[in-house]
Amino acid sequence: MDDRIPNWNLSSIYPSPSSGAFNDDIDRLGRIGEDLRKAAYDGASCMELIGIRDKGLAIAVNLTAYASALLSTDSSSAQYLKAVAAAERAEAEFSKAEDAFLRAFPDEGEVPDEYRYAVSEIRQMKKHLMTPDEEALAADLSISGSSLWEHLQENLASSISEGMTLTELRALASSENRDIRKKAFSEELALLKRHSSSFAYALSGVKGSVLTLDAKRGWADPLDRSLFESSISKSTFDALISVIEDSLPIFHEYFRIKARLLGTDDFSFCDLFAPVGCVDRKYAFSAARGIVVSSFNAFSPDAGEFADMAIESGWVDALMHDGKAGGAYDTYFPLVGESRVFMNFDGSYDSVLTLSHELGHAYHDHLLSKLPMSLSSYPMTLAETASTFSEKLVFMHILEEERGRAGEMFAIEQFLQAASQTIVDIYSRYLFERAAFERIAEGAVTADDCASMMLDAQKRAYGDTLSAFHPYMWAVKSHYYSADFSYYNYPYAFGELFALSLLMKRDEPDFPSQYRDLLRRTGSMSAEDAASAVGSDITDRSFWQAGIDLISSYVERLGRWL
After folding, report:
1. What percentage of the chain carries pLDDT values higher than 70?
2. Half-sphere exposure (CA, 13 Å, Cβ side) for 326?
3. Cβ-count burial of 225 within 10 angstroms (0-12 exposed, 13-18 middle, 19+ buried)?
4. pLDDT at position 551
5. pLDDT higher than threshold 80 for residue 278
6. Are 508 and 459 in contact (CB under 8 A)?
7. What is the pTM of this model?
8. Is the pLDDT of residue 354 over 80?
9. Which of 61, 290, 475, 524 sits most deeply, having the most CB atoms within 10 A of its CB?
10. What digits encode the pLDDT tens for the residues 4-63?
11. How far apart are CA 323 and CA 464, in angstroms?
12. d(CA 396, CA 403)
């Protein structure tokens, strides 16, 4: 099998950012926006309005996803920056038509059963509108305001360097050599500190915009809006967070076990991603592909076939290079019904998990690809369920292959490493963001303010298990810089624990079919209702505790290797 690390092929989306097809869609989006305004003013029915809006949303998502995908592969490209700006201008203009859509949307009227939740969400959004002039001004200002702050963070994170780029330094966090990890960690902190004021200005700009606009739109606070957009209730959120807080001692015990396995009494942030067990294990991309496809296939042949097709068809961009943004994501192009997976493959076990995670997102998109935008746009909470479930399939597959051998310890530790990130570190990120909003409400924050808040959050989450923390994690994580979605953190913990509960049902004869049905419903019902479709009550602490108990059992298994 070909061992080359792939770059994606975007030609089926648009030939190029300067192509006639790309520019024609920008023009077409403008015309559909006019059609939507006219229909709104003419008193069109609920379904007539939704039909026009869905066409426009599909084009808007296609344009912005394409331009953003290009820019993430080369953040300094003038051509790609121009394409992003053009797509965002077109999207912002269409958002003005969406404003007319919301204001004119009927408060009552018959709709098909499958659209009832979508319609209730639209009517709820209608209640959180500013005046038409204010919404138009906000859309215009986002182009020269919060959007540019977001791009500044992305550009800095992908371009700053001191011999090595930030992406390259962070990749060394999983080195088996502690001296390499410590040196890379020290250089990363020094690099981020030098540029920390720029990151702090960007963070203040984004969060300040969010606070101003959310208050004007009648949200109690950014978390209130986030929960609405995540399609979960406050009772579900409270149950999740309280179980996470109570579970921290379990993870602290894991960190202590890992420290002993590493042979150190100086366990630091730089050791969190250190491999334990098969330290010389590196994967060619072809091997990673084989593991992911086999794991998916063992659960459901259609999932395995999809993953193999996506890689073979050039849907994955995994090669690391200068100018490429860090991190990973899946992006969907509704006009062609295709996804693309962005990542930086370094041959680590984590890279295998990342590939499975993002292909899980893509599989989710695939199952919804025949549905209109109003029934296929799912919230972050349920989106992370599909991707995290896919990761666990890979874990269970490898664990079974390695049972009774040294690789078993490696697989268990990697599982716990990932779980600690999506529970403990995500909890610290939630605490930081909550504190940042509170502080920025009083005025812009300095880099030192941010570092102090990050340290406080990490100490609450990690307890006394770490000898050194990462005070600049707030600069690294692009999720903090999104004005469109605040608290881009707890959905990962939601997905982790929800996926663990689903995983326990994977061998039931009808479960693969039920799982597909669940994913298909994620755009047309609340998270609570979607979970009830597979017999789960996510407002109940015991649901979340079941996932924690499974994690605890693996902490105990890891301890047996001492």
Report:
1. 99
2. 20
3. buried
4. 96
5. no
6. no
7. 0.83
8. yes
9. 475
10. 999 999 999 999 999 999 999 999 999 999 999 999 999 999 999 999 999 999 999 999
11. 37
12. 10
User: For residue 477, what are its two tokens?
Assistant: 């994580």
CB–CB of 263/252 below 8 Å?
Answer: no
Six token digits for residue 180: 């390499």
Residue 514: what residue type?
Q
Of 375, 316, 358, 336, nearest to 114 (Cα)? 375
Tokens encoding 519: 């994913």
Residues in a beta bridge with 165: 161
B/e letters for 375-400, b = 16+ CB within 10 Å, e = fewer, are bbbbbbbbbbbbbbbbbbbbbbbbbe
Contact in structure between 260 and 560 (CB atoms under 8 Å): no
Instruction: Quote the pLDDT of residue 1.
Output: 52
Beta bridge partners of 161: 165
Closest CA to 378 of 556, 277, 252, 523: 523
Amino acid letter for position 90? A
Q: Are strands 338-342 and 316-317 parallel, antiparallel or unpaired?
A: parallel
Q: Tell whether the model's pLDDT for residue 370 goes beyond 90.
A: yes
* Helix (DSSP H) and strand (DSSP E) numbers for the chain: 24, 3
DSSP 316: E
- Contact yes or no for 344/326 (Cβ under 8 A): yes
Residues 452-487 have pLDDT tens digits of 999 999 999 999 999 999 999 999 999 999 998 999
Rg (CA), the chain: 23
Burial class of residue 113 in the structure, from the number of CB atoms within 10 Å of its CB (0-12 exposed, 13-18 middle, 19+ buried): exposed
Q: Which residues, including other chains, have CB under 8 Å from residue 431's CB and lie 6 or more apart?
A: 456, 457, 460, 461
Two tokens at 257?
Answer: 């076990």
User: Is 31 within 8 Å of 37 (Cβ atoms)?
Assistant: no
Listed residue (91, 70, 90) closest to 81, CA to CA: 70
Residue 482 burial (10 A CB sphere; 0-12, 13-18, 19+): middle
Q: Which two structure tokens, joined as six digits, stand for 450?
A: 């941010």
The amino acid sitting at 542 is S
Q: Which tokens go with 552?
A: 């605890």
**Residue of 122, 243, 172 lying closest to 494 (CA atoms):** 243
**pLDDT class for 188, splitting at 50, 70, 90?**
very high
From the list 297, 335, 325, 298, the residue with the least C-alpha distance to 25 is 335
Residue 181 DSSP label: H
Q: Where would I find the beta strands (DSSP E) of 359-512?
A: none
What are the distances in angstroms from CA 157 to CA 177, 192, 198?
A: 25, 9, 11
341: enclosing H helix or E strand: strand 338-342
CB burial of 50-70 (b: ≥16 within 10 Å; e: otherwise) equals bebbbbbbbbbbbbbbbbbbb
pLDDT band at 386 (very low <50, low <70, confident <90, very high): confident
Burial of 294 from C-beta contacts in 10 A (0-12 / 13-18 / 19+):
middle
Residue 374 near residue 50 (C-beta atoms within 8 A): yes
Mean pLDDT over the full length of the chain:
93
Q: What H or E segment, with its residue span, contains residue 333?
A: strand 329-333
At 69, the pLDDT band (50, 70, 90 cuts) reads very high
**Tokens standing for residue 481:** 């810089």
